[in-house]
Amino acid sequence: MPFLKKLEEQYKNRNIAFVGISIDAEKSYEKWRSFIKDKTPAGIQILADNDWNSAFIKDYSVNSIPRFILINP
Q: Where in the numbering of this chain does the Thioredoxin-like fold domain appear (predicted)?
């Protein structure tokens, strides 16, 4: 995470966004929210709506984490 924060700072004010997508199961949502609040990770943090069965996860063939994906505008 420290490297990701540095990278985000390096690309600040450019046409790029860093997005973290949590694939936690519903039972872990509160744990995830606490982590986000306490650790304030870099980028935009969102929660997949259906863990490993979420549309984004399937559409981009995410089968392990962490996964880094570049998507153009």
A: 1-73
pLDDT per position as a tens digit, 11-37 = 889 998 889 899 988 898 999 899 889
* Whole-angstrom distance, CA of residue 1 vs CA of residue 33: 17
Q: What band does 7 get if pLDDT is binned at 50, 70 and 90? A: confident
What is the rounded distance in angstroms from the CA atom of residue 30 to the CA atom of residue 24?
Answer: 10
CB neighbours of residue 57 within 10 Å: 19
Range of the domain at 3: 1-15+25-73
Which ranges in the chain belong to alpha helices (H)? Answer: 2-10, 29-39, 55-59
